[in-house]
Here is the input.
Amino acid sequence: MSREVVFRFDGAPYPGRDGQTIAAALIDHGILSWRRTRVDDQPRGILCGIGVCFDCLITVNGEPNVRACMTGVEDGDDLRSQEGTGYAQ
Here is the structure.
């Protein structure tokens, strides 16, 4: 059994499991969108799930444009939704 981790998404704490992708951890909590397109403000989350489409971009610990489907959630991660392809903070 994997150990529990705690991450924050847009300021709120959530539990996750060591070894989960960020996308899986967010989906476990009913969060299906964590990015909005810059032009049309359309919600985006996971689409392909294999790192090809880049729809799942999220800001992790201040670094934008991290693929949530390819990156594991870690204890203490600060995850932030982002607009478009994001900006460094």
Q: What stands out?
A: The chain has one helix and eight strands. Residues 4-82 form a domain with the Ubiquitin-like (UB roll) fold (CATH 3.10.20.440). The longest helix spans residues 22-28.
